[in-house]
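User: Okay, second chain of the day. Same drill as before: sequence in, structure tokens out.
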Amino acid sequence: MTSFSLSKLAIASALVAASSGVLAQTAAPAAAKAPEPEYTVTGNLGIFSDYRFRGISQTNKQPAIQGGVDLALKNGLYLGNWNSNVDSTMYNGANIEMDFYGGYKATFGDFGLDVGGIYYYYPGTGANPAGWDIKNGELYIGGSWGPVTAKYNYAVTDFFGAPDSNGSWYLNVAAAHDFGNGFGVNGSIGYQGLRGGAKVAQINGTVVDSITDWKLGGTYTADGWVFGLAYISTNRDLAGYTSPSKNISNGTAVVSVSKSF
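Assistant: Same drill. Structure tokens below.
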């Protein structure tokens, strides 16, 4: 019995080994990893109840339609364009903002780097009587670590056309968290330093050379659509251009819906 059992065991082991060899020989090879594309083109489009730039309404607290397109190369270089309607009185006859930017992005483990430049263009600005030609060019450097990002912008032209204001700068720190199931939260705080003619007068008449803004919001994403609600405010009280009695820098809830494609 012992000899017979050992023989059966040997035969069974041989069969298992043989079947394993057959499976190994007939198993489908692992799919080759798709090569990274040389470039990608993406777009975005959104509707917002207010366009807030560094905490200040650019549309006299009216809705805005915004959208853009981005080209990213495999080597980290990128170019892009972004657009939004704006208050034409605020921008001396221009009713649209067109931003053109380019730079370089790279990652180092958990850290990210972003350096580049941006030009804010307002076609038709200066059309109003005694209106100045509003423009602004900035260089920027940004970094990220996990959910936290920081970005520093430095004006290399007169800041939105204000005389002797080059060197005005802006620092923003932001963070975001994804709860899963489409829900997320985000927040940020920014500080705008103003030089020369870029200093602004508040509704009470005091002139200030800095503005602090903050944002706290939440998002819900479904089928690629992002629904957002955010509270945005600043520490200043600035009068509107179309409606001088309207405070365009106080706290406001901004509702939005957007999609990237």
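The CA atoms of residues 140 and 153 lie 4 Å apart.

User: Thanks, on to the next one.
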